[in-house]
């Protein structure tokens, strides 16, 4: 019996902050149960940073501009009714000119992907990561060549950019999302009763050595944040909470792993708040370097907020990694985070965007001292039980197998 043919569709590849996608793809590939392919829509802004990305980068498929235009013409000539219907749906759903332009580019590139896939004896199953343009491309392939499709919903694709989402859900074979919080939102949009499954974007817990941490009784407390430098990650709130001070909080020094558009602004803010000697900007780092940083950290902080445009976290992989390593963890009561960082059980939660609340939560965590070991033990158990990559891969693989 032949193995299921599954095509992964993403916006861009590689993307340094989206290693969870390639981890999932690699784990599925190791099972030997699927013929897997990776396809993308747009050029990537990043070079491969992680070793796991390099292998897939060599085989990822992104049609050049000429091939994309040929695919668009092929769809118009060979599937005119589907082609017209696709254009009508997209023009009606994407009202903002900037979104419509990007959607139309995605449609053109998707036509080239569909043309390639149409040459196969049987259409593959297309699985998209993110409900935005990748899911749109998967839907275009479905309309043009009859391939089944599914997609995984994360964060901005549900909280900010929801154009045509009800239609994408209705026509999908199934939808995956990363948290119960997300499933509740999607259920309200699921007019066609498409199956919606919660499958966590898990990690390989065995790759993260567990050392339950006790906050030192005195001296510096080495805190770590791993997050791209974007507004919704909440770095500015964290800086202000540190500057607010207090006996325990004044002991905290902070390393930041991650890069992004706000780096210069955040460096200037740290200087204005008098934090230059306490905050280090380390930029992007490999997975091995992140693990090493987690290995020596006393405290992990992810101060997530809701940005002005509605963007916020889904369920950050960085929190899974910190808990897996046994690092006492502080985050915020937002989106799916409380499903992982259970306040007072596996970590501590502050009110999102509230400087005073975050300052108080940090102080309380530091003052716990040796008692943070209990949080660390519970955190590791939570990640191992509910967020292990093998479990999430098995659940997703079962859905792909059912779709044969």
UniProtKB/TrEMBL annotation:
<keyword id="KW-0328">Glycosyltransferase</keyword>
<protein>
    <submittedName>
        <fullName>Colanic acid biosynthesis glycosyltransferase WcaL</fullName>
    </submittedName>
</protein>
<dbReference type="GO" id="GO:1901137">
    <property type="term" value="P:carbohydrate derivative biosynthetic process"/>
</dbReference>
<feature type="domain" description="Glycosyltransferase subfamily 4-like N-terminal">
    <location>
        <begin position="109"/>
        <end position="206"/>
    </location>
</feature>
<dbReference type="InterPro" id="IPR050194">
    <property type="entry name" value="Glycosyltransferase_grp1"/>
</dbReference>
<feature type="domain" description="Glycosyl transferase family 1">
    <location>
        <begin position="218"/>
        <end position="381"/>
    </location>
</feature>
<dbReference type="GO" id="GO:0016757">
    <property type="term" value="F:glycosyltransferase activity"/>
</dbReference>
<dbReference type="GO" id="GO:1903509">
    <property type="term" value="P:liposaccharide metabolic process"/>
</dbReference>
<dbReference type="InterPro" id="IPR028098">
    <property type="entry name" value="Glyco_trans_4-like_N"/>
</dbReference>
<keyword id="KW-0808">Transferase</keyword>
<dbReference type="Pfam" id="PF00534">
    <property type="entry name" value="Glycos_transf_1"/>
</dbReference>
<dbReference type="GO" id="GO:0008610">
    <property type="term" value="P:lipid biosynthetic process"/>
</dbReference>
<dbReference type="Pfam" id="PF13439">
    <property type="entry name" value="Glyco_transf_4"/>
</dbReference>
<dbReference type="InterPro" id="IPR001296">
    <property type="entry name" value="Glyco_trans_1"/>
</dbReference>
């Amino acid at each position: 019996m032949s193995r299921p043919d599954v095509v992964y569709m993403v916006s861009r590849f590689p993307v340094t902050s989206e290693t969870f996608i390639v981890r999932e793809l690699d784990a599925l590939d190791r099972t030997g149960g699927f013929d897997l392919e990776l396809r993308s829509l747009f050029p990537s802004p990043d070079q491969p940073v992680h070793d796991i990305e390099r292998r897939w980068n060599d085989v990822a498929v992104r049609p050049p501009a000429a091939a994309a235009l040929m695919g668009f013409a092929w769809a118009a000539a060979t599937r005119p009714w589907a082609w017209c219907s696709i254009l009508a749906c997209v023009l009606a759903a994407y009202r903002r000119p900037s979104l419509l332009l990007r959607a139309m580019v995605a449609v053109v590139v998707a036509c080239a992907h569909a043309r390639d896939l149409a040459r196969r004896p049987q259409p593959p199953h297309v699985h998209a990561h993110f409900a935005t343009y990748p899911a749109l491309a998967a839907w275009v392939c479905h309309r043009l060549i009859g391939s089944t499709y599914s997609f995984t919903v994360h964060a901005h694709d549900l909280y900010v950019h929801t154009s045509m989402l009800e239609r994408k859900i209705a026509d999908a074979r199934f939808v995956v999302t990363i948290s119960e919080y997300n499933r509740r939102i999607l259920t309200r949009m699921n007019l066609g009763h498409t199956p919606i499954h919660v499958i966590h974007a898990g990690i390989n817990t065995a790759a993260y050595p567990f050392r339950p941490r006790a906050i030192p009784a005195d001296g510096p407390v080495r805190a770590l944040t791993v997050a791209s430098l974007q507004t919704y990650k909440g770095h500015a709130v964290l800086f202000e909470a540190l500057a607010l001070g207090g006996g325990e909080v004044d002991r905290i020094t902070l390393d930041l792993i991650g890069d992004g558009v706000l780096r210069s602004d955040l460096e200037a803010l740290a200087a204005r708040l008098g934090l230059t000697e306490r905050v280090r900007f380390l930029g992007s780092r490999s997975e091995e370097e992140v693990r090493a940083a987690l290995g020596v950290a006393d405290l992990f902080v992810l101060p997530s907020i809701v940005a002005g445009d509605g963007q916020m976290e889904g369920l950050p992989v960085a929190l899974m990694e910190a808990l897996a390593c046994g690092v006492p963890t502080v985050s915020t009561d937002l989106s799916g985070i409380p499903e992982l960082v259970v306040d007072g059980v596996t970590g501590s939660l502050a009110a999102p965007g509230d400087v005073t609340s975050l300052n108080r939560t940090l102080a309380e965590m530091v003052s716990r001292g040796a008692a943070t070991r209990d949080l660390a033990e519970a955190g590791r158990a939570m990640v191992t039980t509910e967020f292990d990559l093998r479990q999430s891969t098995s659940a997703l693989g079962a859905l792909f197998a059912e779709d044969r």
